[in-house]
Amino acid sequence: MLKIIFLVLLSGGLPVAMAMAAAALLYLWWVPSSPPFVVIHRMVSGIDSFPLLAVPFFILAGNLMNTSGITHRIYSYALALVGWLKGGLGHVNVLGSVVFAGMSGTAIADAAGLGTIEIKAMTDHGYDAEFAVGVTAASATLGPIIPPSLPFVIYGMMANVSVGALFLAGILPGVVMALLMMLTVAYFAHQHGWGGDVKLHWPTLLKALMESWVVVAWPLCIWWLVTEAGMQPQATVFIGLLLLFAADKLFHFQAVLPIMTPVLLIGGMSAGVFTPTEGAIAACVWALVLGFLWYRTLHFKLFLKICLDTVETTATVLFIVAAASIFGWLLTSTGITAAISAWVLGVTDQPWQFLLLANVLMLFVGCFLEPTAAITILVPILVPICQQLGIDLVHFGLVMVLNLMIGLLHPPMGMVLFVLARVAKLSVERTTLAILPWLVPLLGSLLLITYVPIISLWLPRLLSS
């Protein structure tokens, strides 16, 4: 009865969150096993969670980075590093998304932020609009995979899994996905005879390589000074940041300081300086320092607008979580999740077969539901089965998020699809066809991440040992 009411309301055009809440209320009214005020109680308790405090701060940090000129710096850095390769701007598109993923945490922010710059640049250089849209859509899926990640926060809260471990688990899969996408760009470049889009200028390339070296060497030096030389962590990081700002001023780097956002987050969480929730606040402070004091691209009026946008987005996300909480509770209390688990375990007790079935289900659901709603509905159903089959929940969280990100590229609910169709001024049909070839690297990445769990689990296990 509950599922039928939900599907009827959803097919009637009601938003997902409202359909879930209304279905729960109607079910309790129809089957009076509990008083209707339980709906309000469960919805409030569903968002009364400390990890969820990270949601507004990660959204604010992404909005600050996205509106303070950081996207142009990231584009210039990626162009200097790989723009001279064959199919140069395609590689720039992927690399730019890798960097921007470390600040935004969402696929839609990536598509709307960098996509506007990248698609125009690619079409101006003679690339087909379809190719530009396809590579932008595929690379946007990196947003929630490479930390920080808003879907990881939601999944971690729902599945009772460490958000820090999920962040660490996303790094290597993100690299694998980026490499497969760049190989796809190289294939298209070979097929069409495309060359580089900028001339190989050694001073510019060396400067970009120096920026990359600084990003890698800085945390390693801090780690060595703290663990081997016995220096105080707080003082070492403070001095290191001063040196980092001095180097940025001296060499006029394009994107070292923005790229350091995920480095500081992962480093701080791994060292126990702050929790993932506190790390979201640290990311906001870092973005404010860069926007107001260092680059001076933010002003109070713009900051107020960013805050209002953040409030609107946060309210939407948390309303979905609240509505899904009561819906998930009813699924559990009415025995639906237990029945589904029993049915699945009756079909197969092999983890690899379950993962195959789960992937098909999540890809299908991702085409119809927004990721936050999908996570909050699917976790109570699938996580208990994972626990019975011995599947690592960190690994499964990564598989779930990647499936739902691929779902964002397809109608009828693919938000990335609609954003890019608007940015590129293409019809939804042409945009969908443009994305189809890019399902090959995405589904290839999904298979690798699903059936080679060490890709996801190596870093969390290394840093927790």
Word description of this protein:
By secondary structure, the protein is an all-alpha fold. The chain is built from 24 helices and no strands. The chain has helices spanning 2-11, 16-30, 37-47, 54-67, 70-82, 88-104, 107-124, 129-140, 150-159, 163-169, 171-192, 202-227, 233-251, 256-270, 276-294, 300-333, 336-347, 351-366, 371-389, 393-407, 415-424, 428-435, 439-451, 454-464.
Task: State the shape.
Answer: globular
**Coarse structural class:** mainly alpha
Unreliable stretches, pLDDT < 50, 5 or more residues? Answer: none
Output the number of helix runs. 24
Biggest sheet descriptor: none
Features:
465 residues, mainly alpha, 24 helices
Topology, please?
Layout: H1 2-11, H2 16-30, H3 37-47, H4 54-67, H5 70-82, H6 88-104, H7 107-124, H8 129-140, H9 150-159, H10 163-169, H11 171-192, H12 202-227, H13 233-251, H14 256-270, H15 276-294, H16 300-333, H17 336-347, H18 351-366, H19 371-389, H20 393-407, H21 415-424, H22 428-435, H23 439-451, H24 454-464
